[in-house]
TrEMBL record:
<keyword id="KW-0328">Glycosyltransferase</keyword>
<dbReference type="GO" id="GO:0000166">
    <property type="term" value="F:nucleotide binding"/>
</dbReference>
<comment type="pathway">
    <text>Purine metabolism; IMP biosynthesis via salvage pathway; IMP from hypoxanthine: step 1/1.</text>
</comment>
<keyword id="KW-0808">Transferase</keyword>
<keyword id="KW-0479">Metal-binding</keyword>
<dbReference type="InterPro" id="IPR050408">
    <property type="entry name" value="HGPRT"/>
</dbReference>
<dbReference type="GO" id="GO:0006178">
    <property type="term" value="P:guanine salvage"/>
</dbReference>
<dbReference type="InterPro" id="IPR005904">
    <property type="entry name" value="Hxn_phspho_trans"/>
</dbReference>
<keyword id="KW-0963">Cytoplasm</keyword>
<dbReference type="GO" id="GO:0000287">
    <property type="term" value="F:magnesium ion binding"/>
</dbReference>
<protein>
    <recommendedName>
        <fullName>Hypoxanthine phosphoribosyltransferase</fullName>
        <ecNumber>2.4.2.8</ecNumber>
    </recommendedName>
</protein>
<keyword id="KW-0660">Purine salvage</keyword>
<dbReference type="GO" id="GO:0046100">
    <property type="term" value="P:hypoxanthine metabolic process"/>
</dbReference>
<keyword id="KW-0460">Magnesium</keyword>
<comment type="similarity">
    <text>Belongs to the purine/pyrimidine phosphoribosyltransferase family.</text>
</comment>
<dbReference type="GO" id="GO:0032263">
    <property type="term" value="P:GMP salvage"/>
</dbReference>
<feature type="domain" description="Phosphoribosyltransferase">
    <location>
        <begin position="14"/>
        <end position="168"/>
    </location>
</feature>
Amino acid sequence: MTLDSHIHKVLWTQDQILHRVTQIAAQITLDFNAAPDPPLLVGVATGALLFFADLVRRIQLPLSLDILRPQSYGSDSLSNGDPSISLDLKLGVKGKHVVLVEDIVDTGCTLSSLIAHLEAKGVSSVSICAFLDKLTRRKVPVKLVGDGKFYRGFECPDHFVVGYGMDFAELYRNLPYIGVLKPEHYK
Ligand code: 5GP
Ligand code: MG
Ligand code: MG
């Protein structure tokens, strides 16, 4: 059984994804071009890592990279709203301008807790770069730090999506596009 045969519907193709990633990278390049210090791009593992890799190689600036892993929710599709950190940053972030790179924002609980975590470390600003945003499902407003900005790839309809780093039960992260599974595979 092939990977593609598990997919009910493709929402964004690989071409559409990379086109949008290129646009976001150009915007970040423009916004941080005049900044005195290089930004620190932080990828939220595991879901954002494909987006992170595509994004950072298109940003035309000196920058640093690090990874943050929130506590996993297990293999179900519901978040519990209380993510703590399971893998912290390697680099010091005091006084840094951080761009937090996420796969998808849903309720906003995960991002809010990660932002609070970075703020407590004394960052100068936190910007958010989320590839997808389920705006209609927001429970917690995402509060930026300092003069941080919010970059968004696409607004996502209220479906549980997989691919381009995003999983269902730790599968499908390697799909190069984003789609919705056939109902029999959400089990
Ligand atoms: P939040 O804390 O905003 O409710 O949830 C954010 C996290 O939940 C995302 O980083 C992602 O890991 C997961 N998530 C939310 N919606 C989806 C979805 O449609 N598909 C997948 N695979 N993960 C999702
Ligand atoms: Mg994520
Ligand atoms: Mg997941």
